[in-house]
Specification:
about 80 residues; mainly alpha; about 80% helix
Length: about 80
């Protein structure tokens, strides 16, 4: 329950939840959902970085030889 908050004492969160008159189950469900969303966003960020690197590499392969031929023709 406290893993998302970085708290070391689960009682701290429980005390906070109780002082706010909120159900512990609701807070647990919300924190689990939040943790899942963060995980998905992290995976999406990694995938985007991989796609950008692959596109950059493809673009280099497409335009790399043409550029070198164009430079050689100018000399």
């Amino acid at each position: 329950m406290c893993c998302c908050l970085g708290a070391k004492d689960p009682k701290a969160l429980e005390n906070l939840v109780n002082s706010m008159n909120v159900k512990t189950e609701s807070v647990n469900r919300d924190l689990t959902s939040y943790k899942g969303i963060l995980s998905k966003l992290s995976a999406a960020k990694e995938l985007m970085a991989e796609l950008m690197a692959r596109e950059k590499r493809k673009q280099g392969e497409r335009y790399g030889p043409r550029t070198s031929l164009h430079v050689e023709a100018m000399c």
